[in-house]
Amino acid sequence: MGALAVLITLLALPAFAADLPQWPKAKGEACIAANDVMRREHPDMLKHQRDDTLRLGIRGAKASLKACVECHAATSADGHAVPVDAPGQFCQSCHSYVAVKPDCFECHATTPKATVREASR
Amino acid sequence: MINRRHMILASGAMLVAAPATARQAGQPASAAQRWGLLIDTSKCGVECTVCVEACKAEMGLSGHDRPRTDAQYVRKVNVRDPATGAAHSVPVMCQHCAKPPCVDVCPTGASMKRADGIVLVDRHICIGCRYCMMACPYKARSFAHEDQSGQQPHLPRGKGTVEGCTLCVHRIDEGKPPACVEACAARARGAMLFGDLNDPKSEIAQKVAREATTRIRADLGLEPGVRYQGI
């Protein structure tokens, strides 16, 4: 009986593994905190930082949505940045796995700053 | 004794060595500063829209080809005195009032004035009621009616929220002048002067102390940070 349970678990494992979110590798060396901390606390970090930055004008905070996007936005084969909220990308892959719809990207840029636009100004 | 010529030379030297320094990371904006603009309309061409275009590019403002409702942070207003025929072209943006009526009427606290006098919208808590748009005598604010795309990382903007000129707060915090001022100096006649009105050593503070300047609708007593010369 026990052997059967182990066998079923082993057979079921690949099915679970296939459903886990996957995302492109980040550009930076390391995140601002450990993965388990980031996974649990990034909404609070960003919510605290947004008020400090916008309302008080404090720049250079450790947590910043702009910095998240700069590091985690993938680059497509033709050299364009892929939006972080596109399916399978960094933000969207986990949020769709846990069925959470963040509002951030209704306003915030989903790709790092386009250098072309800056040059044409 | 400083004569007129030396005074002009000194002011020119100040202009070149604009003491724009970035605020240190972690430091909040301070009431010791009061950012302002001085716009010389005698240098402002009727057809010129360099500041408007620079603003749109800097802020990532893309319209829907509907001039009445598309977002516009700075617009050119052409005025003419019917008695004398004197015509002026005036760039009008958020005047960054010391007593902003948009902040008074906001029911959620989204419309706010930063410590250094920059008036902003906190879109995180803006409910899109547009009271501020009605309260503003300068018609300075716009409303995003539709889903937005192509935002710049430094300027989030989205459907259902009010927006307006931020005096390029993201550039000021880096020690740079607003995009309109930079573009006007580079590609037009340099009609705009940006600086700290509270700093007696700044070019703008010295100029407003020396020369006659006006504020639009000064009778309202809102004490805007944007001043004009020549109207």
UniProtKB/TrEMBL annotation, chain A:
The keyword Signal applies. Residues 1-17 form the signal peptide. Keywords: Signal. SUPFAM superfamilies: Multiheme cytochromes (SSF48695). This is Hdr-like menaquinol oxidoreductase cytochrome c subunit.
TrEMBL record, chain B:
The keyword Signal applies. This is Fe-S-cluster-containing hydrogenase components 1. Residues 117-146 form the 4Fe-4S ferredoxin-type domain. The keyword Metal-binding applies. Keywords: 4Fe-4S, Iron, Iron-sulfur, Metal-binding, Signal. It comes from Paramagnetospirillum caucaseum. It comes from the Bacteria. Pfam families: Fer4_11. Residues 1-22 form the signal peptide. Gene3D superfamilies: 3.30.70.20.
